[in-house]
Structure formats: C-alpha cells, structure tokens
Design goal:
By secondary structure, the protein is an alpha/beta fold. Helix content is about 50%, strand content about 15%. The relative contact order is 0.10. Bound molecules: pyridoxal-5'-phosphate (PLP).
Amino acid sequence: MEKKVKSVPSLADAHLGSRSDMSLEGLRRTFREHVFYTQGRLPVVATTNDLYMALSFTVRDQLLHRWIKTVEQMGRENLKVVSYLSAEFLLGPHLENNMINLGIYDEVRRTAEDAGQDIQALFDQEEEPGLGNGGLGRLAACYLDSLATLEIPAIGYGIRYEFGIFDQEIRDGWQVERTDQWLRLGNPWEIRRPEITCDVGFGGRTESYQDDQGRFRVRWIPHRTVKGVAYDTPILGYRVNTCNLLRLWKAEAVESFEFEAFNVGDYYGAVDQKITSENITKVLYPNDEPVQGKALRLEQQYFFVSCSLQDMLRIYKLFGGDLKQFAGHFAIQLNDTHPAIGVAELMRLLLDENGMDWDTAWDVTRNTFGYTNHTLLPEALEKWPVALFAGLFPRHMEIIYEINRRFLDEVRNRFPGDEGRVARMSLIDESGERYVRMAHLACAGSRAVNGVAELHTRLLQEDVLRDFHDMMPEKFSNKTNGVTPRRFMVLSNPGLSRLITSKIGEAWVSRPEELRRLEQFVDDGDFREAWRRVKHENKQNLARLIHARTGIEVDPSSMFDIQVKRIHEYKRQHLNVLHIIALYNRLKQDPACDLCPRTFIFGGKAAPGYFMAKRIIKLINSVAEVVNNDPDVSRKLKVVFFPDFNVKNTKFVYPAADLSEQISTAGKEASGTGNMKFSMNGALTVGTLDGANVEIREEVGAENFFLFGLTAEEVDSLQRNGYQPMEFYRDNPVLQGVIERLTSGHFSWGDQELFKPLIDSLLYHDTFMLFADFGAYVNAQQQVDAAYRDPERWTRMSILNVSRMGKFSSDRAIREYCRDIWNVKPVRVELD
Ligand SMILES: *Cc1c(COP(=O)(O)O)cnc(C)c1O
C-alpha cells in the first residue's frame, strides 16, 4: 500500500532471508533470536511473557511476507477491496490461531514439548484484545477470518480501545467490573504506523465561500482537532497466502505549536488538550445496546469513521484513482449503525475537500456503502439528539438536512399525499425532542441493506424498516450470520476435529459442507463411542477449569446444560433459573425422583448500569449456593456461574456442552451466533423459534432439536392484546411453587427484598413473557431428560447436528456478501 514498497520490490524481497524460513530449524533459530534480540534476555532468565512474545514474533515474521504481498495487491487497478467498518472487533487470542492457519501448529507444539517447554503456558499468557461486547464484535472477527481464507482483499477498520470490555469478577454473588489492561505487557501483533495519521475535527462552525471557478462551497472550521494514528494487525487466512489488514485508530493530540501562540506559556492547558484528545479511544462502552446521549460515544464513532474514510481516499489517490469511480474500488460495509455517520462524512470529504458536485458525490456515496442491521429491539435503534449532533458536527448536520430534503422529495414523489409516511421515514425524528435517526441515514445512504437471519430480515421488512422496504425492496436481502470453523472447531475442539478428519479427511475445515459425509458413520458403534469419549474429555477439561475458577466440583458424567452469552432480559437467563428451581422443588418433594443428573452452567457479562441483568447474576449465584450445598439435591443438580466469559474461555465452554440454551423471546434475538458454535461442537439445542435457531432447526432436522415456546407472531399478538402474566400463573402449580420459593427468601437467606424487582416484573409487566413460555419450556426439558438417558440416541443426534452445520460457517456468509452486495472476487496472492 505504501509506495516505497512498491517501487523497490527487490529491497522488500531481499529482507525475506532467514526469518521467513518456515522449516522447523528456521523457526527455532528465529525464536532464539527473538528471545535475545527482541526481548533482550538470556534464555535462562526469560519469563513466560518473554517466551510468549518471542514465539509471537516468530509466528508474526511468517505473516509479514504474506501481508506485504497482500496489501501491495490492494492498490492494483480493477481490484475491489472490502472495507469492513465496525466499532467492535472481538478477536480473541492470535497466536494459536495464526499457527493453525499457517499449518505449523502440530509441528511447533511437538517440538516445544520435546524440548520440555510448556507451550500451553505461552498460549495462556496471551491477553485477548477484548475490543467488543459480544455477538456483533465477534461476528466482525469471524468475517475477517473468512475474508482472508476466501482470498478476498479486505481491510477491517475500527478503534484501538486502550481498555476493552471489562474483566468480570464475582464477589459475594455479584458482578464486579475490573478494567481490562490488555496492553500492559505489550502487544506483539500490532504495528504502530506513526506516519499514517489523519486529522479529525470536532465542533466549531461552517462558512460558505466562492471558489476560483465561482462555485458555491462550504468549509468546516472545527473548534478542535484530534489526530488518529494507525495500528495495524495482520489477519491471515487458513492455509492461503492472503493476509489482510486490520487497521485500528488511536486518538492522540495534534502536535500544534500554533497553540502556543494563543496561550503563551499555558503548559497545563496543552497537557489538558492532550488528555482530552486521548480520551476518545480510551475505553469501550460496555453496553450491548446504544448508549443514549453520551457525546464521547458519538465522538468515538465519528473519529474512527473519519480516519478510515480519509485513509481509503488516500490509498485510492496514491494509485491515481478517479474519485468518481471510488465505489468500484471500495465496498464499505457498516456493521450496524455505529459507523453510519460515514454516509455524511464521505459526502463531506467529496464535496468540501475534493470539490465534487452534490449529485456525483451522492451517487458515489450511495454506491459505496452497505448496511447490516443487527437489532429489532426498538430501544436499541440508535438516535442522537439534534442539538448534540449539530454541536459536534455542524457540517454533517447541514449535509444530513440536505440528504433528508432530497430523500423526502423522493418519498413524496413515490407516495403522493402520504405525509405520515414522510414523517416516519425522515432522517430526523420530530415527534418530540428532535433526533437524528442513524438507521434511516444508513438506509438512505446505502446500496444494500441486510438482516442477519431469515426471520430477522423478514421482521425488519415487515416492521422496523417497513417503509424503506416498501420504497426500495431491491435494496434488501438476508445474510444469515456464520462463525469460523477454524477458531470454533479446529482450535477449540482438537479432539473432535481429529476424529472428524480421521473419517472424512481435512477438507471440511475450508468446506464445512463436507461435514455431511459424517452422516454415513452415524450407525457405526465404534465411531459413536469415540464421539462420546471426545465429549467426555472436553467436559473433564471444563470441570477442571470450573473448579479452579469457582471451587465448585462438577461431575463430567452429568449432563452439561450451558447458557453463555451477555446477560439480558430478552435472552432470558432467568427462565433457565425458573426451570432449575422447578427441578429443585421436585427433588425436595421426592428425593428419589427419577431425574437425569445435570450441571447447569452460566456465563456472561452484564452492562455495568443494567440493574435487572446484574440482579439475574446474583440470582444465579444465590440459587447455586443453595442447590450445590443441599445434600438432598446436589447429587442430581449443580449450578455454576463461570466468571469472565470471553473469547479465550469459549474453547473450554462450547466443546463441553451437551445442551445449548437458546431461549430468547421469539422475535427479539436478531440471529445469535453462540447457537451455531454449540451445535458445531455436538451440543443439542433447546430453543425458541428465534433468530438463526429457526434455520439451525431446519438444517439439523426438527427431530434433532428441542423446540418450545411462542412464535414471534404469537408474542406480538399477545403483546397487542395485553399480556397478563397472571393468567399463566394461576393455571400452573409448578410455576407457583417456583415463585413461592423465590418470594419466601429461600435463596436469599430470608431476604424477601433482594429478588422482588425481578419477581414483580415477571408477575405484572414482563415484556419478555417468561410465564407464557414456562410450561412449554419445562416440557421440552423433560424431553431432553428422556433423550439423554439413551446415550446411543443422543450421540446420533449430536453427530447429525455437527454434520449438518456447514451452512453456518462464516465462509458461506462472506461468499453471499461478496456475490450479492460487494461484487468482489477472490485474488490469489503469490509469494516469490
Ligand atoms: C459468540 C459469542 C457471543 C455471542 O453469543 P450469543 O449466544 O449469540 O449471544 C458473545 N460473546 C462471546 C465471547 C462469543 O464468543
């Protein structure tokens, strides 16, 4: 991408001597060199971190050659690059993943072990970049993996948060947040690019003027300017040479001595400015939903979007591109509305900084962007008060008004006399306090709009974005989410991966459709036995970790029933708890009753300000304490809250599950991706017809999925007719028993206040309708119990789940984006 590399290829290639040597001997030598020359240590005093850093640099050396070749190609004419804009990338540790993708994992591991080196300790040393909250950020990371694996030239653009998602501790049953200091010991995977910087303005005013050709022009005079500095991380595909770029921006103060002229000797003022500037990328908002009205959040969004667009224009011009053709060279995808201000920013850059006329600029902009919607929850649709927005971005506000004026003219043209529709579709919500509607800006300014599962896309078209769909149905399509089988099978579940490969070869890793060939072994008793052995080992591994982290002993031969995801009322972890209490009551009444032993495992973080979610965590821990310590029930039931669920932990969790809990209120979960990871690792699902559960059930077969609960339509009509939880409560003695236990203070040392807010919500105004689904859920769980007693039947179902999960590889999803939205083709990267 940088011209220098291009103009002196011989120099670049001359450097590829010893360090690019991927032979075992070469790797060993490079590793020793890094211990000494990079870490500055003699091997005898090297710490675990020194060795981890040296190994990471050794592996990174193997990436750089591929990276430079890939990036160099991006400047080529007639080549289209995907630019994935996301405020979050939840990457997980790099080291193991890169070793797998390079194909050196087994060899290096064996060599290290032969030399008496505990390589696992080095993997454990890596701090994960927790630059995301959950599903949305993890999706971005899976898509980067698939883009590289499919040999699509791509750049991920985002924010280099100094503090990512908080680390979760559990104290006295409550969540405690600890800052995530992921950069403390250094990050060997990033390369700072101090020469790649962008200036980003905030506040101030605009003024108009006439340019030399007498044309009306506008310029923005910001009140303050912040500098963005690029930090690059290589993203290697699986067994290919494509090594794409993740470019994250850090905010710094501009080095400006003009400042001195205004405030002579104001040293502290200058320091303040530095601190204010750096605040922008200081910390990730730990909220799964948009934070209302926080200026810093809006500043973060604009900051990284502006840097990224300026960077793309810079790259494009470097290679002599004609701005009118920009949309032919970059396909920019907006991961939710967080980067939607990019529509106005690209317009500003083209109009004000490049002198383009409005119609041409709008054409370029609209052909460049695609927008992925991630939510149906109305409260999660991002909007910003006009006053806040206009104060920070006066020029963008003007541009948005002009986009809106023209857009609403189009609406009036298409639907004459329908002013209600005009008000509904406006980019500005004028129903009360005025807001900028980011989803509307994204829809108006994009060539393509997509949902993330079939049900979600349908509901988007029928409800949340209905007016947009009426007007431009051709823009809409579905792109069901997927996850990468490299991280979530090969890396996480080596035992299962080896077993699968021993039967059908290893082609399934890049072509998961091949997993279908496992079906022919479903009647093979030895295979099923081996399948169970792998699951049992994975459960032992998780049991050990649970003991280490919580002190709780769990039995790996009990059923592992797992719900891990962000804690949220719509995801209904508390429905799961109600079921546990129902089982507890049954066992208390009849300790000899015939229940299949189960271990209930929960994990997930709550937004620090989310009262109910934090109370649900306390509830889980309180129930766990009583259940685990009651000899009447603890032989049959165990309850565990696994603290600090993150990407690094996922490899112990998903592969160890027998049962996957996907029990959100129908119509609330856009897709889910955890559901896919569980099923790929041989767990069966108990779930509602929500998000991608619908498609998972279609693929694996209804007979291999435990379905329960209301449909999205039933939820909707129940809501409209006035949901009365009492009607369900009155008819259900099991439910009454559960609620009585809770209200009595049985799980809270007699404290009847602790869980009252939760119980009152369930009894009187629960929008997530737990009581409506409770009966069906308990029944479905009885079916689960019956199925688990027959290990042969259960194993068959498990094998069929894995063999039919090919559709949910992120490779499939990315192929669809490439074909339907981005119009990009793979490019082979040749090393010389
Ligand atoms: C996959 C994943 C999620 C998303 O899980 P859902 O069950 O789809 O909500 C959240 N966090 C982490 C760490 C993940 O790996």
